[in-house]
Specification:
- The protein is an all-alpha fold.
- It has a domain of 105 residues.
- Helices cover 67% and strands 0% of the residues.
- The longest helix is centred in the middle third of the chain and has 20 residues.
């Protein structure tokens, strides 16, 4: 049974009404509704109320109270709240700086396939930030991020594309992994799917790197790398016609 106020409104109803007020720009009416919904346990309302406290919207700005509501929302699985509370702990916003807690919430967020959190998490493992340095875990998360579907959101897509390129370079140069030209070429093929996220100059440099690998690999290995790439991302490669061309 959904929790309700003495007026019989559920948390969902209160949250819906608060968003209507937010859309209308009526912050004075929205914030009390947010608070009521948040107190009844609605994670979206808890997140939005936290943002109000961070920005001082119809309440006195208070990062500590914001973190309280972010934590409650994050504990219920809100990706946005998990990201923000991780950031609060990372920089000491409204709390003591605590990289272990920042890592904890970054992990929770990354487990929901948020590209930015996944990017931050693999950085934690690479540098030993908030956790022990672990190349295997770094590689796992880099591969998981790089294998996500292409996204329309340019910022999120950029994290995916960067992970794809980083893996290609790692295996090409043997950085933190055994050198493997075929695996490197596989990641370049996957990078090619979203290389438009990078500048023309960056694309040209990477096209030349791909050509060098092609000269090193046998035809069988090149074909095998294509099959490996499609298995890695779970679909056919769609941009092979532009493998040696810049994408706009």
């Amino acid at each position: 049974m959904a929790a309700s106020t003495s007026l019989g409104q559920t948390a969902e109803e209160l949250n819906t009404r608060s968003k209507e007020m937010l859309t209308e720009g009526n912050m004075q009416a929205a914030v009390p509704l947010l608070r009521s919904a948040a107190e009844l346990g609605h994670p979206e309302a808890q997140f939005n109320l936290a943002v109000c406290y961070q920005q001082g919207v119809e309440v006195e700005r208070n990062d500590s109270i914001a973190n309280y509501w972010l934590t409650r929302s994050a504990e219920q699985g809100s990706v946005n709240a998990q990201f923000k509370i991780a950031y609060s702990y990372a920089v000491g916003r409204g709390c003591e700086k605590d990289m272990t807690k920042a890592f904890h919430w970054t992990m929770k967020c990354a487990e929901q396939n948020d590209p930015e959190c996944m990017w931050n998490l693999l950085g934690c493992y690479a540098n030993g930030t908030g956790t022990e340095q672990n190349n295997d875990s770094m590689l796992h998360w880099a591969q998981r991020l790089a294998s996500l579907p292409d996204m329309e959101d340019l910022e999120m897509s950029g994290y995916i594309t960067n992970a794809r390129l980083n893996l290609a370079v790692m295996y090409r140069d043997g950085n933190n992994v055994a050198r493997n030209a075929r695996t490197s070429y596989m990641w370049y093929l996957i990078y090619n799917e979203s290389k438009r996220d990078h500048s023309i100059l960056e694309q040209r440099k990477n096209i030349e790197a791909m050509k060098s690998l092609e000269a090193e690999l046998s035809e069988a290995d090149r074909d095998g790398a294509k099959d490996d790439a499609e298995q890695q991302i779970g679909r056919k490669l769609m941009n092979l016609d532009n493998l040696h061309k810049e994408d706009m």
